[in-house]
Design goal:
single chain, alpha/beta, 2-enoyl-CoA Hydratase, Chain A, domain 1, 6-stranded mixed sheet, 3-stranded mixed sheet, 11 helices, 9 strands
Length: 267
């Protein structure tokens, strides 16, 4: 199977210090097909390398965040038993997750609607998840005989605990936004009619913070998932000293004392 480019399937726009990455196949609920996974990886790479970007937001066009893999494509691969092509798609998803975790900037999943399968896993790989009241999340891989990927079995137990993670993955049920917030699967739920405005305001506020401190916190939090307390304390100490040496720390402390808004430069 030859993977085709889908024109404008992933959009990248940079404004006010925020890189907005939009999955743009609304007629297919932003399901991944063709080279869309690689296009998402490239958009993340470009956003991460842009000097003006302090925060990255991933969202979906239309009424869905992402339905995951396009099952029309998956069905064709299964019928032909094309393990090579299917494995290539799995590897591409892995690259996206690695890219998100390696970016210096925080990555926000703006879950505007249903997030299913790989779409749910994509949201889970992000640093922060903000959901619309219209959103839902489901890890229904086993409903079509497949196994979770895109890091779901790594991140989900760490976000909601092993018991809830097991229940969600084994049952494959869809979780509405309110329950997702209650169990910690998403960090915040906002009304559907104000969703985009509230995400924009949150992202801009985050982008205005000192980049070095944000990056250090993202790195230390990620490391904490595989570290013991002593390693965590040492990582915190090293990050704290790096921040203390920065011009942004001097500016932030001075601005607090002088009761003014700080102007961070990333230095």
């Amino acid at each position: 199977m030859v993977l085709e480019n889908i024109d404008d399937a992933v959009l990248l726009q940079i404004a006010d210090g925020v890189a907005w990455i939009t999955l743009n196949r609304p007629e297919r609920l932003n399901a991944f097909a063709g080279t869309m996974r690689d296009e998402l990886d490239q958009a993340l790479c470009e956003a991460g390398q842009a000097d003006a970007v302090g925060v990255v937001v991933i969202t979906g066009a239309g009424r869905a965040f992402s339905a995951g893999a396009d099952l029309v494509v998956t069905s064709d691969l299964a019928a032909r038993r094309d393990e090579e092509a299917f494995g290539g798609l799995v590897q591409a998803g892995m690259r996206v997750v690695r890219r998100i975790r390696s970016l210096a900037q925080p990555v926000i999943a703006a879950i505007n609607g249903p997030a299913a399968g790989a779409g749910a896993s994509l949201a889970l790989a992000c640093d922060v998840r903000i959901a619309s009241e219209a959103a839902s999340i489901g890890f229904g891989f086993n409903q079509i005989g497949l196994h979770p990927d895109w890091g779901a079995t790594y991140f989900l137990p760490r976000v909601v605990g092993i018991g809830r993670a097991s229940e969600l993955i084994l049952s494959g049920r869809t979780v509405p936004a309110a329950e997702a917030e209650r169990i910690g699967l998403v960090d915040r739920v906002v009304p559907e009619d104000s969703f985009h405005g509230e995400v924009r305001a949150y992202a801009r506020a985050l982008a205005a913070k000192p980049p070095l401190a944000l990056t250090a916190a993202k790195r230390t939090l990620a490391r904490s998932l595989v570290s013991d307390l002593e390693e965590g304390l040492l990582a915190e100490s090293a990050a704290q000293m790096t921040c203390f040496r920065s011009a942004d720390a001097r500016e932030g402390i001075a601005a607090f004392v002088e009761k003014r808004t700080p102007e961070f430069t990333g230095e």
